[in-house]
Amino acid sequence: MFAHNSVIILLTLLIALMASIMPLPLSVDAFRPDWVLIVLMYWCMALPGRVNIITAWVMGFLLDVLLGSVLGVHAAAMAVAVYIMAENFQKIRNFSIWQQALITGVLAALYHLVVFWLQRFLIDATFLPSYLYPVITTIILWPWVFYLLRKVRRHFSIK
Amino acid sequence: MNPIFNHGPSPQHRLVLVLFCSALLIFFDHKMASFESLRGYLQSLVSPLQYLANTPKQAMTWASENITTRRQLMAENQQYRLNELQFHEQAMQLDIIKQENERLRSLLASPLRSEIKKMVAEILAVDSDPYSHQVVINRGAGDGVYEGQPVLDALGIVGQILHVGQTNSRVLLITDISHAVPVRVQRNGLRLLASGSGQIDRLNHNFVPQSADIQTGDILVTSGLGGKYPEGYPVSEVSFVSTDDSREFVRVYSTPIAQIDRLRYLLLLSEKEPVRIFAPKNQQLKDDIKKSQSLKNKDVKVVD
To answer: With the CA atoms of B245, B249, B251 and B252 taken in that order, what torsion angle do they form, in degrees rounded to the nearest 10?
Structure first.
């Protein structure tokens, strides 16, 4: 993991984890983008040999611990979303940036729905449209994260 | 060099493996609750991340606290002086009333109320998970925090401790969907149950009969019945009572009195000894009176 500057990947993932638990005002909180998912998506698309489903699951597990939800819920949802990316990374790489953003949005929606279904199964949560607000911010955020992480990848020549 | 064909297990196999792991975790964590001690360790393990995530907010608060004008400080100071005067006078009265109450209680042979120890804690992080209402505070097992400990802010009940780590712990808020507090109406002593609605500004009250005397504006305080929360702390104010006679029960909603969406400092309560439910016998009664007299001299300690 330490060869080819792969430690940078870990660092970006840790920053994403931090961003996803950072305290925000209540009005903005519902729109918090899925930082961890976006970063995982990028690395899985760019370097599928380094970041794969297992990494996604471990990140989801850490998110479970940080958010205090039932252990394994976010881990499973994250693994499912990244699985679809890992299966289709060669196609998605060749799409234009906005098409990629839309696909990320769809996967983020899937992620939130899987989390919701599991929560519904466990604690009888009821669906609120606000659970899907992060999808919008995730779509808007994708191009910026994509260019930033590509720059990081090329600068540190992570393979 | 990147190989064209990936080595190792295929994505399908990996997915099945991790989903199986997830299912096991969910089963053991949710149905069997067998990870309580492990969660403590995990909580301690990720606490550096939480402290780091909290630094921008702390920096902002530090800046806003340090960049205040002299005039502002003077005005604030004056306000505090006035407040202190008022509170001091109230505290004096409270002392007298407390003594009187204890004496009357011991005359009636009803259980004495034990002194409550308090500890101040600061909020570290607020969860972004919309399915649960929890906050993380900067006190843990090292400070004497225990599971189920009641948590207050300056205005009313906030929640109780859910998981304890070494240096931080997690508070379940009263608005969480899995939480309920036994309360009573302050005006007439009517007993109710205040369960969380999953919305930050609403508590639900189920199974209130049509004949119940309850109206909007009633203050609900803890009844002390569950044994978790001490008696008499304000919880919420009734905000809505339906007048639909065709239903079996009245729909009652209330708004929490504690400012759940803008918490910063919290108070953790702990009883020095568990409250005795049964009336003490004669021999015990004398001990209790002695004890209460020695307790009177000590003020309520605030451990910070």
So the answer is: 120
On whether any CB of chain A is under 8 Å from the CB of B242, the answer is no
Residue B160 within a domain:
no
Closest-CA residue of chain B to A64 = B129
| Owning domain of residue B51 | 13-66
Q: In this structure, what CATH number is given to the domain that contains residue B238?
A: 2.40.10.350
DSSP element (H, E) containing B204: strand B203-209
Tell which of A10, A13, A15, A18 to mutate to test the B interface (max B CBs under 10 Å). A18
Does residue B173 sit at the A interface (CB-CB below 8 Å)? no
φ/ψ region of A72 (left if φ > 0, alpha if ψ in -120 to 50, else beta) reads left
Question: Using CA atoms, how far apart are residues B27 and B15, in angstroms rounded to an integer?
Answer: 18
Domain count, chain B: 2
pLDDT exceeds cutoff 60 at B105: yes
Instruction: List the single residue in A with minimal CA-CA distance to B179.
Output: A123
Q: Report yes or no on B101 lying in a domain.
A: no
Q: Is A68 near chain B, with CB under 8 Å?
A: yes
ipTM of the complex: 0.84
CB contact under 8 A, A125 and B49: no
Q: Is residue B96 part of a domain?
A: no
Q: Which residue, chain included where needed, has tokens 């409550």?
A: B116
- pLDDT band for A101, please (50, 70, 90 cuts): very high
Query: Which whole number is the average pLDDT over B59-76?
Result: 85
What would the pLDDT profile of A32-91 be if each residue is shown by its tens digit? 899 999 999 999 999 888 888 999 999 999 999 888 888 899 999 999 999 999 999 889
Number of neighbours of residue B111 by Cβ within 10 angstroms: 16
Q: Which domains are present in chain A?
A: 3-155 (1.10.1760)
Secondary structure element (H or E) that encloses residue A100, with its range: helix A97-123
Distant-in-sequence, close-in-space partners of B5: CB < 8 Å, separation ≥ 6: none
Q: Are B192 and B185 in contact (CB under 8 A)?
A: yes
A42: helix, strand or coil: helix
> For A2-42, what is each residue's pLDDT tens digit?
566 788 999 999 999 998 888 777 778 888 899 999 999 99
| SS3 category, A37 | helix
Q: Nearest CA to CA, how far is A25 from chain B (Å)?
A: 9
In-domain check, residue B242: yes
Q: Tens digit of pLDDT for each residue in B5-38?
A: 556 778 888 899 999 999 998 888 887 777 777 8
Q: Is the pLDDT of residue B286 over 60?
A: no
Rounded to the nearest 5°, which phi and psi values hold at B152?
-125, 160
pLDDT at B118: 84
| Contact present, A68 and B127 (Cβ < 8 Å) | yes
